[in-house]
Design brief:
Number of strands: 13
Mean pLDDT: 93
Structural class: alpha/beta
Largest sheet: 8 strands, parallel, barrel
Strand content: 15-25%
Number of domains: 1
Helix content: 25-40%
Radius of gyration: 19 Å
């Protein structure tokens, strides 16, 4: 397993992180909680140290499962969670409904402090290594948000500050008030809009970039063929990217890069993770796993080093027209 720093902080984290969105069950057709706990422990056993969760993943369920899984192993974990998607208040701006509760984007200072205390209880710890604003809140001045985060860091309750789903302009405003160590953004072979501005800016500023959904919600693993039927899975069931036709197209593209994976003894998913980690400015990849086998497979991508020619070949295959 390779490790890279979280920005300018002193924290070293595994380049492959465990993304804990799916184990919260919401939008993923539920979750097998026992398998989720076993998956996290298998990830730790495989050298993964970075675990990324959030209160909004199952209205606290993901954090609770992470807390259970890391009990007795806290010192091995770089624990990342988030704030700003809330259901305890009507502040901010409505975002979506989950479990019969309206969830708002809200980054008010008092709300952040409340959220962190709830997260610490669910995670069974007294500090978080990386605390990130989950989505940006246009109704609250960034000055108020960052003041609260800097204060929590001063208290020792968080060790590093990150943002997510942010623009370069947002990051600049945060930086005026304190250090921003990380930015977490959606990035994959099918989601490359941040290559023009955000990735170069973060690289220049020494900000680590954590890619979420680097396997495009499983589409790039090669394991979701056109025959797959999605039940109780709102994330993929109604998503045009997962239409039968597009899944067939993606399978065809993946077949083109299969020889590269075979040469390195990698699965297609591992090859895609390795490609992601090789992109300029991209420092960590957060990959979900719902059972131990998936967690171990993901961890195995960390040490793969692709040549410039192989990276270019993967890139060229996915530059062909595909449903995005």
């Amino acid at each position: 397993m390779r490790y890279r720093p979280l920005g300018q902080s002193s924290i070293q984290a595994s380049v492959v992180g465990f993304g804990a969105w799916a184990i919260g069950g919401w939008m993923w057709g539920g979750a097998d909680e026992r398998e989720a706990v076993r998956a996290i422990r298998a990830a730790l056993d495989s050298g993964i140290t970075l675990i990324d969760t959030a209160p909004a993943y199952g209205l606290g369920l993901s954090e609770e499962l992470v807390g259970e899984a890391i009990a007795g192993r806290r010192e091995q974990v770089v624990l990342a969670t988030k704030c700003g998607l809330v259901w305890h208040t009507g502040g901010g701006r409505f975002f979506f409904n989950q479990g019969g509760k309206p969830v708002h984007r809200y980054l008010g200072g008092d709300s952040i402090r409340y959220e962190l205390e709830q997260s610490l209880k669910r995670l069974r710890t007294d500090y978080v290594d990386l605390y990130q604003t989950h989505w940006q809140d246009p109704t609250t001045p960034i000055e108020e948000t960052m003041t609260a985060l800097v204060d929590l860091k001063r208290q020792g309750k968080i060790r590093a500050i990150g943002v997510s789903n942010a623009s370069v302009g947002d990051i600049r405003q945060y930086q005026r008030l304190g250090p921003v160590d990380t930015d977490q953004e959606k990035y994959s072979l099918l989601d490359r809009g941040h290559e023009a501005a955000l990735l170069p800016y973060c690289r220049e500023q020494g900000i680590a970039v954590l890619a979420y959904s680097p396997l495009a919600n499983g589409l790039l693993t090669g394991k979701i063929g056109p025959e797959r039927v999605f039940r109780g899975d709102a994330l993929r069931r109604n998503n045009p990217r997962f239409s039968v036709e597009n899944r067939a197209r993606i399978q065809g593209v993946l077949a083109q890069i299969q020889p590269i994976a075979k040469l390195h003894g990698l699965t297609l998913g591992q090859l895609v993770i390795a490609w992601t980690l090789a992109q300029p400015g991209l420092t960590h990849a957060l990959v979900g796993a719902r059972d131990p086998r998936q967690a171990v497979e993901n961890a195995g991508a960390s040490d793969a080093i692709l040549s410039d020619e192989e990276l270019a070949a993967v890139d060229a295959a996915f530059r062909q027209p595909t449903e995005r």
